[in-house]
Design goal:
Blueprint: E1 3-5, E2 13-18, H1 25-38, E3 43-47, H2 48-53, H3 63-82, E4 86-90, H4 96-106, E5 109-115, H5 118-124, H6 129-134, E6 156-159, H7 165-182, E7 187-189
Parallel strand pairs: 2-4, 2-5, 3-4, 5-6
Antiparallel strand pairs: 1-7
Length: 192
């Protein structure tokens, strides 16, 4: 059995995009996935809104439900990461402790804070959450009537109110390449 150096990306990595609703997490993670795929990386996008429609539709927006949502997403992301996939998680994930638990579970993990002021997010409001909140139809929106705990030391911060989508995408792809360079010595066995 011989060993061949394998870039970090092929050992798997979870990129965890966190931020307020409408900060640009889904838009950015989709753009990054397209670019990484074009570069030959194996990618998978786990969008919390999509997962709430299918896997997590039994969960609401209480703290316990939000923590369980993050726990389930982290479990899936961990499986994919172990199977040499770059996983792009797009989830508000408002509580630091839940994100830290995901980091501890997955290990190959980079937190990306998608930062935009609340006023910008409310103006964007692509799925009408803020409008519905202000109309009294819903509650528990992180950063408004529920807490949002900003990351203290994310690997990357993208300011989507002042950066173009391409500028933010380039920053994330550059991060992935930098992490790959740090891990150039990782080897895996070749199988016949």
């Amino acid at each position: 059995m011989t060993t061949t150096p394998v870039p970090y990306c092929h050992t798997g990595l979870t990129l965890w995009f966190t931020g307020l609703s409408a900060a640009g997490k889904t838009t950015l993670s989709r753009a990054v996935a397209r670019e990484l795929t074009a570069l030959g990386y194996r990618t998978e996008l786990l969008d919390a809104d999509d997962l709430r429609t299918h896997l997590n539709r039994d969960l609401g927006f209480t703290k316990a439900d939000r923590d369980e949502n993050v726990r389930r997403i982290a479990w899936i992301a961990g499986l994919l990461t172990r199977n040499r996939v770059i996983v792009l998680v797009s989830a508000v994930s408002p509580y630091r402790a839940a994100r830290d638990a995901a980091r501890q579970q997955i290990k190959a993990f980079a937190e990306i804070y998608v930062d935009a002021p609340l006023a910008v997010c409310e103006a964007r409001d692509p799925i009408g959450l803020y409008r519905r909140l202000h109309a009294g139809e819903i509650q528990h929106i992180a950063g408004v009537d529920d807490p949002y705990e900003s990351p203290l030391m994310p690997e990357l911060c993208c300011h989507t109110d002042i950066e173009t989508i391409q500028e933010s995408t380039t920053k994330v792809v550059t991060l992935v390449r930098r992490l790959a360079q740090l891990q150039q010595t990782i080897t895996v066995p070749e199988f016949a």
